[in-house]
Design brief:
By secondary structure, this protein is α/β, with parallel strands linked by helices. It has a single domain, classed as LmbE-like (Rossmann fold, 3-Layer(aba) Sandwich). It is about 40% helix and about 15% strand. The chain has 7 helices and 7 strands, in the order E-H-E-H-E-H-E-H-E-E-H-H-H-E. A 7-stranded mixed β-sheet has the order 3-2-1-4-5-7-6, with helices on both faces. Strand 4, helix 4 and strand 5 form a beta-alpha-beta unit. Helix 2 packs antiparallel against helix 5. The longest helix is centred in the middle third of the chain and has 17 residues. The protein is globular. It starts with 14 loop residues before the first strand and ends with a strand.
Length: about 240
């Protein structure tokens, strides 16, 4: 299963909410694009569902990992100019499911921030890269966020107890899904993406050539999107929610 062709993105979006499963998901998939949005004057906020307590590649005590990864994500956000970073409580890395409770919490965030656009993990598995993009937590976060965008956040009769007015998100972008066809040239913002990912020390310091790995992946995305040689790109699937 794949996504249908992307819609033409909104040309008047002012506010973007990025909802992802783990610290570093945004930065691996979309930090260059986020930096471009910030440069264009859009207000961007992050909502992380977990604090990445099951992450890491060394013997860091498990109880320290959530605190460490939250700090890393805040530093990474600062590298691309994002000031608002929130974390949900009560959701564990590695066992995330798209529960009604998660939908409710994401709905509350949408109604508070009132974004025109939501960027999130893909709810569809990518079979050519089952490791990484197709992590079950990513799929769960994408599914719960999609349900929060429609119908939950806009429905005045859903989650009435949270005390927030309904809000209609006009557009949703998926990162990490199958056959992404909307390409964003991030050549100029790549240094900030790299800085953001290097801020995730617990997740990237073991990689011998992070810059080379990223450049290779982003070059493939740029070439697939028809960009000139030497350009770097991130790719998404984009849909209107009307």
């Amino acid at each position: 299963m794949s996504f249908p062709p992307s819609a033409t993105p909104l040309d008047d979006a002012q506010r973007v909410l990025c909802v992802f499963a783990h610290p570093d998901d945004i930065d691996f998939g979309a930090a260059g694009t986020v930096a471009r949005w910030v440069d264009a004057g859009l207000e961007v906020a992050y909502l992380l569902v977990t604090r990445g307590d099951a992450g890491g590649f060394d013997d860091t005590p498990r109880e320290q990992m959530p605190v460490l990864r939250e700090a890393e994500q805040r530093a990474a956000a600062a590298a691309v100019g994002v000031k608002q970073v929130e974390f949900l409580d009560g959701y564990r890395d590695g066992i995330l499911t798209p529960t009604i409770g998660l939908r409710r919490d994401i709905t509350a965030a949408i109604r508070r921030f009132r974004p025109d656009r939501v960027l999130t993990n893909s709810p569809l598995r990518r079979w050519d890269r089952i490791a990484g993009p197709s992590h079950p937590d990513h799929l769960a976060a994408g599914e719960a966020t999609t349900c929060a965008v429609y119908p939950d956040a806009r429905n005045p009769f859903t989650f009435t107890d949270i005390g927030l007015e309904p809000w209609t998100v006009r557009e949703i972008w998926y990162s990490g899904g199958p056959s992404p066809d909307h390409v964003v040239d991030i050549t100029d913002t790549f240094p900030r993406k790299l800085a953001a990912l290097r801020a995730h020390v617990s997740q990237t310091s073991h990689l011998a050539d992070l810059e080379g790995m990223l450049t290779a992946r982003l070059t493939v995305a740029a070439e697939a999107g028809g960009l000139p040689a030497g350009r770097l790109a991130e790719a998404f699937s984009v849909f209107s929610t009307a």
